[in-house]
Amino acid sequence: MSNKPELLLPAGDPEKLQYAVAYGADAVYLGLPMASLRTPTRGEQFTPGNLGKWIQYCQEHHVKAYVTLNIFAGNRDIDRMIPHLEQLAEARPDALILSDPGVFRIARKHAPNIPVHLSTQANTLNYSACAFWQDLGVERVILAREVPVREMAEIHEMLPDLEIECFVHGSLCVAYSGRCVISDYLTDNTKNSNKGMCGNSCRWEFDIVEKNRPDEVYTLEEDEKGTYLLNSKDLCLVRYLPELKKAGICSYKVEGRTKGVHYVATVGRVYREAIDYFEDHASAPPEMMARWEAELMDTANRGFTEGFLHGKPSGKTIHYQDSQSHAQATFVASVGEETNADGMVRIQGRNRFETGDDLIWMSPKGVFPFKIKDIKDELGFKTHVIQPNQSVWIQAPEGVSQDDLRWSLIRKREGVAVAG
What we know:
By secondary structure, the protein is an alpha/beta fold. It folds into 2 domains: 6-174 and 238-283, Aldolase class I (TIM Barrel), CATH 3.20.20; 327-418, Translation factors (Elongation Factor Tu (Ef-tu), domain 3). It has 10 helices and 19 strands. An 8-stranded parallel barrel has the order 1-2-3-4-5-6-7-9, surrounded by 6 helices. A 7-stranded antiparallel sheet has the order 15-14-19-11-12-18-16, with no helix packed on it. Strands 13-17 form a two-stranded antiparallel sheet. Strand 11 and strand 12 (345-349) form a beta hairpin. Helix 3 runs parallel beside helix 4 (101-110). It starts with 5 loop residues before the first strand and ends with a strand. Mean pLDDT is 87; it is low at 415-420.
């Protein structure tokens, strides 16, 4: 493959897939809820009946489609996966992402011509484990999040023909690469955390007592509710992309479980710009780096950390304040392609906003700060407040062309708590 690392974005449902493609993904990962770690969302879902169509959509747009089958499978899961694999053998995605040796075995039997990528759920930490999977025919290993960059470079040096992928952005678990059982114990038994139904239990408020060490004092930051000892900040490695490329990473993966289209589009746009910029520059000026990181803060996050990139994280990696994600901006509207006789464009409200608000229009081609002066409802009457799910007409900001409308989003920058 090209020496330029690919940008691999999450596609939790068909809408997110389309935004990922529009905002610069070289590849997306998608899957059925029964076989992947994708939590079901509202709206259209991937199904056995439409999965092939969306794989084809990606490939027609010159974007690779990787299908995830990375749950920790029981006997019944294996039985259900066999017809799924036979269907995928015909749909021909660009790769399967697997973690379980049993799933790997049946994939080689029922979809032998599809390349296999080893999921981060396999917790691959060293060159010997990578070589083991390479000997079995795995083309790419998605390293555990706990592997530091110096060891990534050693793995690449020892196994130069093996593709190596790593996560560069998104939520982090306190469990090794997400192999968690905390949620299984603390939520109802129908929600298996290792089959895509994590309850984010590690984010909850805990009081920690070590009964056998009464003389050892643990200094914890806490509020009146307790402490968030297990609540990690989110991974953000945009400033370290040149270092990762030098270490031999071929694919930069963005985590996106439970995230929406605003997250996928914003993170995709920033990392697309950064990857392209670093192709021609060894480093980025501080003001550019600050702009990238500020825009990433517009999406749901718990603060940022570099994780294990340079070794064991410090206590500063934990988000002690609360269990919620926060954002500097609110996603307030999505934009359609339809325009009226006055040259106004139809938008769909996602959150409340009004005339005079300072807004940001984002398209795959750029970001445009603006204020809305006039808003007209469906009957052509002026209005001043837009509510969620309300369809209205506004004037697009200067510099936005008709071609930019289809995948544009509007946000209002401010501090706001968001779910997930």
